[in-house]
Design goal:
With about 70 residues, this protein is of the alpha+beta class. The chain is about 25% helix and about 20% strand. It has two helices and two strands. The chain has helices at about 5-10, 45-55, and strands at about 30-35, 55-65. A two-stranded parallel sheet has the order 1-2. The chain is globular.
Length: about 70
C-alpha cells in the first residue's frame, strides 16, 4: 500500500469522473492514476475511456494504468 505524505496530499485535488459519459468534460490533469476500472469495461468502452484519459493529461503529465488495464 502507498501512503501519500500530508504535504503532497494538500496539493492534490481528488475528483471522480464519469468515464462512460463522452459528453462530460474531464478537464485537464497533470496526473491520472487508473488502477483497474478500465479492465471492468467492455473493450469498446475501455478504448473510448482510455482515449479520453490520454487527451485529459496535460503535456508532460503522467498517465498510470494498472497492470490489468488494457491500453
Amino acid at each position: 500500500a502507498f501512503v501519500v505524505s500530508a504535504r503532497l496530499r494538500a496539493q492534490i485535488r481528488w475528483r471522480r469522473v464519469n468515464l462512460h459519459d463522452a459528453a462530460a468534460p474531464l478537464g485537464a490533469f497533470e496526473a491520472v492514476i487508473c488502477r483497474s476500472v478500465l479492465a471492468r469495461m467492455i473493450p469498446d468502452a475501455a478504448a473510448s475511456a482510455t482515449s479520453r484519459l490520454i487527451q485529459a493529461v496535460t503535456p508532460g503529465g503522467l498517465l498510470v494504468l494498472g497492470p490489468r488495464t488494457p491500453a
